[in-house]
Protein 1
Amino acid sequence: MKGRTAGEPAQFRGLLPEKVIISTPLDPYLPLKALAAYSGLSVRTLRSFIERDPSSALPCYRITAGKLLIRRSEYDAWVAQFRCQGRPSLAAAARDLGLV
């Protein structure tokens, strides 16, 4: 920009947005069918996780008698408890031997 001195703000030509609107929800509530596509699990399997003992069940929101919604972040947090490393048989053996 010609003729600008140090410390002087730059000038722009054209339109500048006053605000930015994010059109996609960052943490959506997903129906079971959408969660099945996101998770790679079947709707039946997801329903079985919801119907578990309340202390280990997949958290959900019952909107009506048949409509269930699950927040994506809550699903991610719930599934993180099942994270494992290595082969399960080796992990169990290491745990049995007191190595873990």
Note: Strands lie at 29-31, 61-62, 68-71.
Protein 2
Amino acid sequence: MNVHLSWNFRKMLLIGLTATTFTGCAVIGLGGEPDTRWAGYQSWNKLNVKPVTGDHTGFLGNLHEGASGVREVYVNDIGWAVANGEAPYSYPVGTVIAKEQYKNETDLNAGKKPGLTVMVKTSDDAENPVDNWVWSRGYNATAESDTFCSSCHTIAMGSDFVFSNAQSLKSFR
């Protein structure tokens, strides 16, 4: 009997951990107030003049609404000069980049609430340079170290782990 209860407990634990893992990958707000570092991001500098569609990186897959999604990318004043300039890119500490994601252009034009991911440059001297950034998967989520985000952004190591900048978004300007 104890073995049976132990097995049920293990199943419930596995189901709970799986649900937490998949929920953690969603691009949704978690309730509460937004971090003050990106609370007014829509008033910042937008890197794209027209909505970003497709997969200009070649690495998007199903992330950020995938190749059929539409994205808008905002950068705070701290990182604007670097994001809007030419390589090499080296963002200053305090840079915040916010990316809105919509399923399609119809949702964008209808004013539907977007998914939001945010990256924040918190240091310049981490032992592993990608750890200079923290990540948030939602407007009301907490920015923190995130292996899922950082492992993908490692592909953009040559541009300080940022995919969307003046060079990468030339066709969207």
Note: Confidence is low (pLDDT under 50) at residues 1-31.
